[in-house]
Write a structure and sequence with these properties.
- The structure is a single chain.
- The protein is α/β, with parallel strands linked by helices and 289 residues long.
- It folds into two domains: 196 residues, 3-Layer(aba) Sandwich (Rossmann fold); 82 residues, rRNA adenine dimethylase, C-terminal domain (Helicase, Ruva Protein, domain 3), CATH 1.10.8.
- It is built from twelve helices and nine strands.
- It has a seven-stranded mixed sheet with strand order 4-3-2-5-6-9-7, with helices on both faces. The protein has a two-stranded antiparallel ribbon with strand order 1-8.
- Strand 3, helix 4 and strand 4 form a beta-alpha-beta unit.
- It is elongated.
- The protein starts with a helix and ends with a helix.
- The relative contact order is 0.10.
- Bound molecules: S-adenosylmethionine.
- The site of S-adenosylmethionine (SAM) has 24 residues, from strand 1 and strand 3.
Length: 289
């Protein structure tokens, strides 16, 4: 049933990305793909009219659903009244302390996210969810182009610093595509369901992460440039261009390689080498002062 049918007079908000999923078979499939059982606590972002929420409640131990639009809450509460393991939190997921919420609500449970994300906040929401390091997996629906970027292989035109960020934190895969007809109101674009499974082991140690993300962002900020030129532009006087070139060549890469063909493990070794280089440059300059 559409939001309009269930909530007479309800006008969906474009700015809140309110395209409600009305195809029950898609909703069932998303819930199945989250691979839940009673040991899981699920964070749902934007339950809307509850296309996914009852299925999540049936499959998981506990569901906490964060919805920003207060107009939807009464109908949602009525729909979930019999569930017994659901809690609706009215709020903005971008302003909530996600780690704190999860600790408070999911004590003793494994933690995952399952959601049909609002288009407008897909990238920042996924960024916040991965950064929180609070979840074993995220099974989410997103605009198809965003899903492609999350999972893009190095060298593909979709691959960018957001792909590297997601793939650093998780193993990412597109599960299936969903046509515009599955929603009311009908969006102008296709969607895809993606699954991000948090990596237990990271490609770089904690103290190397800042450099890793700085290098990968710099590489894609000027993706048509060689990596050496892009990094030289980004690091300025902090590291000589010749030293960048040497470090990259010493790892076996061509001095003409472009950052856009590199993946997580490449950026890990390049950023580690540049860190070492900067440390020795700083030590040398201290010795000469
Ligand atoms: N889960 C429902 C479905 O599949 O039909 C609704 C999905 S709809 C694409 C996105 C939902 O996210 C809307 O209900 C919207 O009000 C809510 N929303 C938008 N921005 C939000 C935010 N910052 N925090 C929490 N919920 C938000």
């Amino acid at each position: 049933m559409s939001a309009r049918a269930r909530l007479p007079g309800f006008v969906p908000s474009k700015s809140l990305g309110q395209n409600f999923l009305t195809d029950a078979s898609v909703a069932d499939r998303i819930v199945r793909e989250a691979r839940l059982d009673a040991s899981f606590g699920v964070l749902e972002i934007g339950p809307g009219t509850g296309a996914l929420t009852p299925g999540l409640c049936a499959a998981a131990g506990r569901v906490v659903a964060v919805e920003l639009d207060g107009r939807l809450i009464p109908a949602l509460e009525a729909k979930l009244a019999g569930a017994g393991n659901a809690e609706i939190v009215q709020g903005d997921i971008m302003k909530i302390d996600i780690g704190g919420l999860v600790e408070e609500k999911f004590s003793g449970l494994r933690r995952v996210v399952c959601a049909n994300l609002p288009y407008g906040i897909t990238t920042p929401a996924i960024t916040a969810l991965l950064r929180s390091e609070a979840f074993e997996s995220l099974t989410v629906m997103a605009q198809r182009e965003v899903a492609a970027r999350i999972c893009a292989a190095p060298g593909s035109p979709d691959c960018g610093s957001f792909s590297i960020f997601c793939q650093y934190h998780a193993e990412c895969a597109v599960l299936f595509d969903v046509p515009p007809d599955a929603f009311v109101p009908r969006p102008s674009v296709w969607s895809s369901v993606v699954r991000l499974v948090a990596r237990r082991e990271r490609a770089v140690p904690r103290e190397g992460e800042k450099m890793f993300f700085r290098v990968s962002r710099a590489a894609f900020a000027q993706r048509r440039k060689t990596l050496v030129n892009a990094l030289s532009a980004s690091f300025g006087h902090r590291i000589e261009k010749s030293a960048i070139s040497q470090a990259i060549c010493a790892l076996g890469y061509s001095p003409l390689i472009r950052g856009e063909v590199l993946g997580v493990s490449d950026f890990a070794e390049i950023s580690a080498a540049l860190s070492e280089n900067m440390k020795s440059q700083e030590a040398a300059s201290c010795g000469t002062e």
